[in-house]
């Protein structure tokens, strides 16, 4: 028998901690990268949970040499690949999209396609379609092409929210497009002729929430609502909420097309409108079209959100609210007997809340409230 050469090995006291306590502590440290790295080296039992937070978010720029090494590491290291939940991808080639194949926990995907080479896109679309396995919470595609949207959706079994901005046409063949389950669709700066392609890609029985923001530059020569009408008719079978954004720049104030009527859509009970520059409503083409839109909302409308997009910086909120033509808008809303909630807010810049808003300015609230009827005033909330 040989005597041990050293003292007996001591068990790591960290091993005795309850796993529930370990997970609670590591979850609380999710944003402390330095401490999480130390925890991953302290105890093997801590490694899976700390890795889940360390590698939860990833940014890849395929045009950058250092990021090409990162992509190779991502695809080869299971501990990294299996924990990526949020991916921001600045793709150089359409084939770069295939990196999402190997990310089983992916939930949020943001793809920036500016400057992308799409020479291989048609080839990728002709390849056999992989079985969809991903359930994505948020898929955002910026400066992309209609064919690229189709390519990414092929990896997804279901998408909760699809946001498409600055969409471009790559003259895709319609037979490459298929139906995809999307619950909420956000369209921003999309040419009217691409709406028919998007309608082909959206499963109408799955879509519940629709936002359309079409820039007026697509309608300078031919302002009409037909493409929007056809699109909503194609995808709006089970819509619950609709958000129309009519914000224009400069003095031209050309009307942005909206559905000529939402009244046939009995399932819609929530409508939102973001608008700017609505002073002399009854005597302008844009104002008349806006009132026409408000006059043909779904009969079961119960919730209406009105966001006014301010544009004059340096002016106080009260002065801006006094210039808005509120009365015609409120008269149109007065006719909806099932309306139970009217929310009114202001926005400054694309999607940014201003430093001065209704909650901090009772005087601005009063300017708007004085234009409200008694019934509407009782259901109005300023946000």
Question: In words, what does this structure look like?
Answer:
There is one protein chain. With 383 residues, the chain is of the alpha/beta class. The protein has a domain at 245-383. The protein is 30% helix and 20% strand. The chain has helices at 19-28, 33-42, 47-54, 65-76, 78-81, 121-126, 146-153, 195-201, 226-235, 285-295, 317-322, 326-334, 362-369, 374-378; strands at 57-61, 86-90, 108-112, 134-142, 156-165, 182-188, 209-213, 241-246, 270-275, 303-310, 341-348, 380-382. It has a 12-stranded parallel β-sheet with strand order 1-2-3-4-5-6-7-8-9-10-11-12. α7 links the parallel β4 (134-142) and β5 (156-165). α2 (33-42) packs antiparallel against α3 and α8 runs parallel beside α9. The N and C termini lie far apart (81 Å). The relative contact order is 0.06.
Strand content: 15-25%
Structural class: alpha/beta
Alpha-carbon distance between the two ends:
81 Å
Rg of Cα set = 26 Å
Largest sheet entry: 12 strands, parallel
Shape: globular
Helix content: 25-40%
Mean pLDDT: 82
**What are the secondary-structure elements, in order, as H or E?**
HHHEHHEEHEHEEHEHEEHEHHEHHE
Number of strands: 12
Low-confidence spans: 218-222
Number of helices: 14
Widest sheet, order of strands: 1-2-3-4-5-6-7-8-9-10-11-12
């Amino acid at each position: 028998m040989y005597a041990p050469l050293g003292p007996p090995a001591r068990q790591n006291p960290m091993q005795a901690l309850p796993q529930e306590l370990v997970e609670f502590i590591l979850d609380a440290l999710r944003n402390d990268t330095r401490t999480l790295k130390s925890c991953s080296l302290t105890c093997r039992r801590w490694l899976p949970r700390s890795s889940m937070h360390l590698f939860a978010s990833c940014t890849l720029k395929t045009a950058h040499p250092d990021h090409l090494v990162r992509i190779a590491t991502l695809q080869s290291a299971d501990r990294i690949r299996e924990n990526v939940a949020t991916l921001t991808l600045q793709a150089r080639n359409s084939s770069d999209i295939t990196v999402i194949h190997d990310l089983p926990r992916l939930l949020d995907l943001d793809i920036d396609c500016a400057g992308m080479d799409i020479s291989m896109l048609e080839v990728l679309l002709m390849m056999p379609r992989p079985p969809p396995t991903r359930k994505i919470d948020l898929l955002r595609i910026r400066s992309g092409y209609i064919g690229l949207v189709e390519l990414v959706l092929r990896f997804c079994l279901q998408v909760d929210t699809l946001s498409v901005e600055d969409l471009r046409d790559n003259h895709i063949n319609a037979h490459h497009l298929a139906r995809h389950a999307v619950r909420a669709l956000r369209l921003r700066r999309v040419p009217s002729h691409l709406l028919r392609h998007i309608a082909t890609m959206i499963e109408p029985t799955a879509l519940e929430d629709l936002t359309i923001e079409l820039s007026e530059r697509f309608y300078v020569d031919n302002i009409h609502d037909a493409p929007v009408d056809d699109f909503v008719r194609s995808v709006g079978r089970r819509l619950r909420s609709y958000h129309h954004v009519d914000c224009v720049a400069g003095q031209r104030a050309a009307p942005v097309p909206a559905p000529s009527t939402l009244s046939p859509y009995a399932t819609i009970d929530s409508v939102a409108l973001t608008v700017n520059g609505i002073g002399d409503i009854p005597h302008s083409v844009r104002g008349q079209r806006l009132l026409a839109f408000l006059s043909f909302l779904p009969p079961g409308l119960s919730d209406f959100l009105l966001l006014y997009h301010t544009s004059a910086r340096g002016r106080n909120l009260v002065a801006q609210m006094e210039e808005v033509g509120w009365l015609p808008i409120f008269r149109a809303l007065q006719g909806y007997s099932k309306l139970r909630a009217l929310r009114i807010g202001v926005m400054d810049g694309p999607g940014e809340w201003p430093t001065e808003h209704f909650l901090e300015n009772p005087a601005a609230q009063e300017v708007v409230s004085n234009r409200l009827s008694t019934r509407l005033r009782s259901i109005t909330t300023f946000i």
